[in-house]
Every structure is written in structure tokens, then in C-alpha cells.
Design a protein that fits this description.
This protein is an alpha/beta fold. It has nine helices and eight strands. The protein has one domain (4-226): Rossmann fold. The longest helix is centred in the last third of the chain and has 21 residues, at 206-226. The chain binds 2'-deoxycytidine-5'-monophosphate. Residues 11, 33-34, 37-38, 97-98, 101, 127-130, 178, 182 line the site of 2'-deoxycytidine-5'-monophosphate (DC).
């Protein structure tokens, strides 16, 4: 088993950019588990399957092969052999990913992929249920959050930079809807693990947030080694 660091939190809290940088600093592999759910969401969207129909989505799973590869330290995700790392970031895929992620068969399907990565490597894994379900024995658990408005603003700026045509109010609405779905689903709802450190980045710059995370991880790992 490698060293496992779990970072959970709502969408737009800065998990992926911070976790990626933190992994770089620590020399670990960064696993973005949202990309796995997004890949299933993309398949469902492309094949006109209703993401609110658990049976229809579950029936499609045997036709979906999702795999991760790391190229120059960057995670790439493949859907039936096709690199879909860019397509899964399209705004419309987010809502599909959130809906399919509430389906138990989908979570079960992706569980082994996630566990295997954590077993074979030192990882920083981000998601919603990493500290609670996927890696309950993780060495360090962080719950990263920020207000819905701050998260929506960050997401809005990110999409604008990518040249997507977006409206802030719509993004805020989507953030609230996804929070609601992710926190209230019956399987693996988004919530901090009991032994997690809660980090709120609403008033922090990227560099400040990174420094807090780095310090938290180092301290927790040192404490573990002392016991
Ligand atoms: O982190 P993200 O926005 O790329 O995740 C997309 C969706 O996938 C999100 O709405 C919730 C879901 N998800 C999940 O349920 N469990 C995870 N470990 C990661 C993501």
C-alpha cells in the first residue's frame, strides 16, 4: 500500500488544481476520480441514455471501459480506448456526471479502479467519498470547501478562459444543484470524514491554500510516523 491522501469536497472548491500541485510537490500521483464519473456521464450523454434511469445506465456499464494513464505526470482518461480528457470537461457533462454518480452500480463499477491506484502508488486522490468510502484508511484526509458564490466565480472564470460561453448566474445555479445532488444522494453522499481536516479556501489565494494543504499533510504524516 502506498501513502494515501484523500481530498474530498464540493465542486469548484479547487480540489483538482490544488491536489495536482500538491502531488507535484510531494512526488505522488494525482488521481482525479471525478474524471471517472465524468467519463461515464459522457458515454451516457453521447448515447442518449437517460442519466436519471439507474437501470438503463447500469445496463450500459458492460459496454463502457474506463481507464487512466499518466503521461508526463498528467492524468489522461480513456473511454473505450479514446482519450476523452478534454471532452469530459464540457459544461454539459458535469450535470450528467453528478446524476450517474448517484447510481450505486456506477459507484461499485469505479470502486476497484480507484482502490487499485491507491494500492499501487503514493497517491493524492480527490473526489467526494475518498476519505469516507474509497480509502477509509487514508493516511491524511482533507475536506476542501469554499462558499458556493466563490466556487461559482472560480468555475465561471475557468470556463471563460477556455473560451466557453457562460453566464455567472447559471453557473451558480448549477453549483447549488450539484451540491444538493452530491450531498443528499443515498449512496456515498458528499460529507467530511470524521477524521478529516476541514480547509475552507473562500478567503485564500491559490498559493495560500496550497501552503495550508502542504503543511497539513506534512504534519499529519509526521504525527503518524511518531506514533
Ligand atoms: O469533481 P468533478 O466535478 O469532476 O466530479 C464530477 C461529478 O462526479 C460530481 O458531481 C460528483 C461525482 N463524483 C462522485 O460522486 N464521487 C467522486 N469520488 C468524484 C466525483
Amino acid at each position: 500500500m502506498g501513502i494515501n491522501i484523500a481530498i474530498d469536497g464540493p465542486s469548484g472548491a479547487g480540489k483538482s488544481t490544488l491536489a495536482r500541485k500538491l502531488a507535484e510537490k510531494l512526488g505522488y500521483i494525482y488521481v482525479d476520480t471525478g474524471a471517472l464519473y465524468r467519463t461515464i456521464g459522457l458515454y451516457v450523454l453521447r448515447n442518449k441514455i437517460d442519466p436519471k434511469e439507474p437501470d438503463a445506465v447500469a445496463a450500459a456499464l458492460p459496454k463502457i471501459d474506463v481507464s487512466l494513464r499518466f503521461i508526463n505526470g498528467e492524468q489522461h482518461v480513456y473511454l473505450n480506448g479514446e482519450d476523452v480528457s478534454a471532452d469530459i470537461r464540457l459544461h454539459e457533462v458535469s450535470q450528467y456526471a453528478s446524476l450517474v454518480s448517484a447510481i450505486p452500480a456506477v459507484r461499485q463499477y469505479l470502486f476497484d479502479t480507484q482502490r487499485k491506484m491507491a494500492k499501487e502508488h503514493d497517491v493524492i486522490m480527490d473526489g467526494r467519498d475518498i476519505g469516507t468510502v474509497v480509502l477509509p484508511m487514508a493516511d491524511v484526509k482533507i475536506f476542501l470547501t469554499a462558499s458556493a458564490e466563490v466556487r461559482a466565480r472560480r468555475r465561471y472564470n475557468e470556463l471563460l478562459e477556455r473560451g466557453q460561453n457562460v453566464v455567472y448566474e447559471k453557473i451558480l445555479e448549477d453549483v447549488n444543484l450539484r451540491d444538493e445532488q452530491d450531498m443528499n444522494r443515498s449512496v456515498a453522499p458528499l460529507k467530511p470524514a470524521q477524521d478529516s481536516v476541514i480547509v475552507d479556501t473562500s478567503d485564500c489565494s491559490f498559493d495560500e491554500s496550497l501552503a495550508i494543504l502542504y503543511k497539513t499533510v506534512k504534519e499529519r504524516l509526521n504525527n503518524k510516523n511518531e506514533c
